[in-house]
From TrEMBL:
Keywords linked to the UniProt accession: ATP-binding, Kinase, Membrane, Nucleotide-binding, Phosphoprotein, Transferase, Transmembrane, Transmembrane helix, Two-component regulatory system
InterPro entries xref list: 7TMR_DISM_rcpt_extracell_dom1 (IPR011623), 7TMR_DISM_rcpt_extracell_dom2 (IPR011622), BphY/WalK/GraS-like (IPR050351), HATPase_C_sf (IPR036890), HATPase_dom (IPR003594), His_kinase_dom (IPR005467), HisK_dim/P_dom (IPR003661), HisK_dim/P_sf (IPR036097)
Segments passing through the bilayer: 12-30, 195-213, 225-249, 269-288, 300-318, 324-344, 351-372, 384-405
Reaction catalysis annotation: ATP + protein L-histidine = ADP + protein N-phospho-L-histidine
This enzyme's EC code(s): 2.7.13.3
Protein's organism: Cohnella silvisoli
Gene Ontology MF annotations: kinase activity
Pfam families on file: 7TMR-DISM_7TM, 7TMR-DISMED2, HATPase_c, HisKA
Name listed for the protein in its UniProt record: histidine kinase
């Protein structure tokens, strides 16, 4: 995988630290502190005091057999069994029926109040008011379900009266009973703040789900589909938990009635969609973490959980006994597997797993209070009630980045694979052309040699004075073949050997002057004029393989001599500037047509393919390979009839 910002270990650790600090700050501001025990034996209501937390002054009685009536719990034997809640709102995994008793004295000018249960998945919530003055039970006439909130009720509390409130709650899962009492104005203000939060949150969730679904439709990557379904199921479960689904559909909604018939109660609906979201999350993680590469042993556990997932869903659908506990155990196994497999993939070098780690830190960090609240290890607060939603925002952002990274990586891999196919095709085409050229360049001189030897074997008479010429021709052809094979061998050796064992650091000005001077006689023996110019900084120091760069100069000078007319001029030039040295060899010969310029550095490519007299065509390919081994550049400028100028450029360094 390509290196990204998150691939830097220091940046990754910094992000982890920042996320942990952020989670710690959220815990600090929203940790449960409001349910502190109190010694008061009644709730005293006053004007403009906001919210009263009933759990501070309520007593609790477990009705294990679900048989007691209001009269039963008012009787002395049962009344003496009530235990103070002492601020607690969570009572562990003790599904069943609980009776709650609290006493309220209204010392305010208001008589209409709102009692609210912050748990919308409670199966039954029956409330009875006992006015101590009349000693009578007042129920439906003064208890009215609030339209604004699913689990809130309007109650009438006469001024200066002492009223005892009895509440009967029935739950099938964890017993969580946070209760608030407030005046109508405070109630509406709180609802307004909550709905603003829900509007922002679910708007963001809707956008994320639509984005992931569109990514799946355009790219057909199943990880996007799984994550989109994960978001949808998680959001529905949270809507049930917060009572929004019930409020949006209405108590008489056919869809809601159908769901209740299927799952028995609201908690069953909540568990079904929450387990569904974990199942899709499991499928999603198994895709993006690439466990078959980074954690193959973990795949077995993932498959086991994948088999368990539909079984847990069936258990919730058919109301199997203890399915709520089974669901909670499944959630715990999922969390453990997520942590272990993700961190193991990070250890094995997965960059996608790093994004998953960054997503799980805020999600698990903020969801942990809710989980602890489920086990009665942390009491009710804003954090325990909305922890999953707060954590999911950071999770969605991080996972969307992870998916974008994976998609980008997938596209890069496809592009690289396509590019490699094109390169392989070009290599095959070049190899075929090279073999054809080699066959042509060797066959022609071999034919001459074969013919000459055959003529001598047959004793064919050769004209006087032509014998030496005939033998020289054969010798030249054999020499050409040997030179061609030597060039092929050197080119192959250059391509296979990538070690710069023979590198030397030299003063380039002195070295190039010596090399230019050594070619003067070669140029002059070819019947040409020699010129040179050097404008290299005397302090320029360059690290090269002198033998290989000398070979480049020799090949370029040989080319210039070969294609220059007798009496022409070959000019050698070297200069330095901006940390680079540039050398060019210029001739004023026949030049090269523009259509040939892109190919002249290819192996065995010759401008005139009809003859082998102009050489093997490998000299420029060898020069190009050497210069590229030195991380330099080589190129040509030419115009037919005016000559050619071959350049190469190398980087220098100064003492």
């Amino acid at each position: 995988m390509n290196k990204t910002v998150i691939g830097d270990n220091r940046v990754f650790v910094l992000f982890i630290i920042l996320l942990i600090l952020g989670v710690s700050l959220v815990w600090m501001f929203f940790s449960p502190t409001q349910y502190a025990p109190t010694s008061a034996n009644e709730i005293q209501l006053h004007d403009r005091e906001g919210i009263y937390y009933v759990n501070n002054q309520m007593d609790v009685l477990a009705d294990g057999d679900d048989q007691w009536t209001l009269a039963d719990v008012q009787s002395p034997p049962a009344a003496g069994q009530f235990q103070p809640a002492s601020g607690k709102s969570a009572f562990g995994l003790t599904a069943g029926t609980y009776w709650i008793r609290t006493t309220v004295r209204n010392q305010s000018s208001l008589e209409q109040w709102v009692i609210r249960l912050n748990n919308s998945v409670i199966e039954k919530f029956d409330m009875y008011l006992i006015n101590e003055k009349s000693m009578g039970t007042e129920q439906s006439s003064i208890i009215e379900k609030a339209d604004e909130h699913f689990s809130s009720y309007y109650i009438h509390l006469p001024a200066e009266n002492l009223v005892t409130i009895y509440i009967r709650t029935v739950l099938n899962g964890s017993m969580i009973i946070p209760i608030e009492l407030m005046d109508n104005q405070t109630f509406l203000g709180k609802l307004k703040s909550e709905y603003i939060f829900f509007g922002i949150y679910y708007g963001f969730v809707l956008l994320m789900a639509a984005y992931m679904l569109s990514m799946y439709m355009f790219n057909r990557v199943t990880a996007y589909l799984y994550y989109s379904l994960y978001i949808v199921c998680f959001s529905i479960s949270q809507m049930v938990w917060n009572g929004l689904l019930q409020e949006l559909l209405g108590a008489d909604s056919r869809l809601l009635v159908f769901l209740l018939n299927c799952f028995g109660n609201y908690e069953g609906i909540d568990y079904f969609f929450f387990i569904s979201c974990l199942w899709f999350g499991l499928l999603f993680l198994s895709k993006i973490l690439q466990l078959e590469i980074y954690a193959p042993r973990m795949l077995i556990i993932y498959r086991i959980l994948n088999i368990m997932s539909p079984l847990v869903l069936i258990a919730s659908l058919f109301h199997f006994p203890g399915y709520a506990i089974l669901a909670i155990l499944y959630e715990s196994m999922f969390a453990i597997l997520l942590i272990v497999s993700t961190y193991w993939s990070v250890y094995r070098g997965s960059l996608v797993a790093r994004y998953v780690v960054l997503a799980t830190i805020p999600f698990l960090g903020l969801a942990t209070p809710t989980i602890l609240n489920t086990y009665s290890l942390m009491q009710e607060s804003f954090l325990t009630h909305y922890g999953f939603q707060l954590g999911s925002i950071a999770e969605y952002i991080m996972f969307s980045i992870a998916l974008s990274y994976q998609l980008g990586q997938s596209r890069t891999d496809k592009e690289n694979a396509l590019q490699q196919i094109i390169i392989n095709q070009n290599i095959q085409q070049t190899r075929n052309e090279l073999l054809q050229n080699i066959s042509h360049d060797i066959r022609s001189p071999l034919t001459i040699v074969q013919g000459g030897i055959r003529a001598m074997m047959l004793g064919i008479e050769i004209e006087p004075g032509q014998k030496d010429k005939f033998l020289n021709t054969i010798y030249d052809r054999i020499l050409y073949i040997n030179t061609f094979i030597d060039d092929l061998f050197e080119l192959s050796h250059l391509e296979q050997s990538r070690e710069n064992a023979a590198l030397e650091t030299i003063h380039f000005a002195d070295w190039i002057k010596h090399e230019f001077d050594s070619f003067a006689s070669t140029i002059q023996l070819a019947g040409l004029q020699y010129e040179s110019s050097i404008s290299v900084d005397p302090q320029a120091v360059i690290t090269i393989n002198p033998h290989e760069i000398r070979r480049v100069l020799s090949n370029l000078v040989h080319n210039a001599c070969k294609f220059s007319s007798i009496g022409g001029t070959v000019h050698l030039h070297a200069s330095s500037s901006n940390g680079e040295v540039v050398v060019y060899i210029e001739d004023r010969g026949v030049g090269i047509a523009s259509e040939h310029l892109p190919s002249i550095f290819n192996r065995a490519y010759k401008v005139d393919q009809t003859t082998s007299s102009n050489g093997s065509g490998l000299g420029l390919a060898i020069a190009k390979e050497i210069i590229e081994r030195h991380n330099g550049l080589i190129w040509v400028e030419s115009e037919p009839g005016k000559g050619s100028r071959f350049y190469f450029k190398l980087s220098e360094k100064y003492k």
